[in-house]
Request: fold
Amino acid sequence: MAAWARLGEVLDAAAAEPSVAHRIGAIEHRVHLRSAEDPDVGLVLDARGGRLEVVDPGAGSTDATIELTLALADVELLTRGRLRPAMAIATGRATYRGPVRELLRVLPLVQAMVAPPIAVGTEEGGA
Reply:
């Protein structure tokens, strides 16, 4: 599952960016991102203490306070900065357990690293 490997790379990059890692780490949760297609595939984010660390879920108990289950197509969108996770949940494509709202508040930071928004006032994107 190359999309999950790519997601790991994107999240590792977020963890290496101090301002992003600090804001995500401020949610004070351990997040288990799971594959809808294969329960053995996923990632754990330790977002506590103002830091972000990507952990292999196979390394023992995840003790996650938030679980978000994503279909492969949505993982691919996330790696390109194009996923609207709240809409994926609202339409039933993604499921969750726990206070997912905390994660949904900071996930755009990760997506903006992959697909930076167009700067206001530029001519990019056409007018």
In short: The mean pLDDT is 90. Residues 2-16 form the longest helix (15 residues). The chain is about 40% helix and 20% strand.
